[in-house]
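Lab notebook page, bench 4
Experiment: in silico fold of construct C2
Operator: M.H.
Input chain length: 153 residues
Purpose: comparison with the prior construct
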Amino acid sequence: MKRNFILTITAVSFFLIVNQSTAQTTLESAQMQYDAGLFDKAESILMADLESHSKDAAYLKLLADSKHKQDKFSEAVKLYGKAIKYDDENALLFFSRGAALVFLAEYKEALSDLNTAIKLQPDSAEMYYYKAIVWLNCLGIMQPYKLIVKRFH
């Protein structure tokens, strides 16, 4: 009985290690494509294995970033939201979703996310920059798209 228990624990441990290794390889491969500017390839790699990583905030963020870079802002916002469910202390997730919301002209929601990001990481100049862009747009002084394209793309 004791031996069967040890064999079961060993098998489960091996499965978890192999599964974690595969996830890391997928994420690293997608990150390499993303870093090379091949956002559609990164997205393909991530989408192929999304079901088994649907609760992995880093995985979801990279997929959302790929969608964002391809101007698929609505999809990016949804993915950032899912990632936030699993890592609600990550300022970059709120910042990235806020930036995507700006492109969708969802300024109230963008301000909320940017404020949360600033609370979590108050030393980030870029987060204040995006917040200023939203306010300038709300005041009718400028269109944020022109400034953001220079910074985010």
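Observations: The radius of gyration is 19 Å. Confidence is low (pLDDT under 50) at residues 2-23.
Next step: discuss at group meeting.
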